[in-house]
Design a protein that fits this description.
Nuclear Transport Factor 2, Chain: A, 5-stranded mixed β-sheet, 2 helices, 25% helix
Length: 76
């Protein structure tokens, strides 16, 4: 199950990012890397920008922490 934190839902609205785009990024990322504190980052390109989704997994759930548009992939 994909769960959105309150922060992630707030940023979805503020940044006008469709929830479906986040789900698509998590299911079919073009690039995925690890971040800090057990977090992961997934990137997927939509038109000219990449959607960056920061998330963590707990049991079988994916917890979305935040997401935003970026012009390039930051490789960790």
């Amino acid at each position: 199950m994909i769960i959105f934190t309150k922060h992630a839902l707030l940023k979805l609205n503020q940044r006008r990012i469709p929830k479906e785009a986040v789900i698509k990024t998590l299911k079919f990322p073009e690039y995925r890397c690890t971040s800090y504190s057990g977090r992961m980052i997934a990137y997927k390109k939509f038109d000219k920008l990449y959607l960056k989704v920061v998330y963590k997994t707990e049991n079988k759930d994916i917890i979305v922490i935040t997401q935003h548009w970026t012009d390039k992939i930051k490789i960790h």
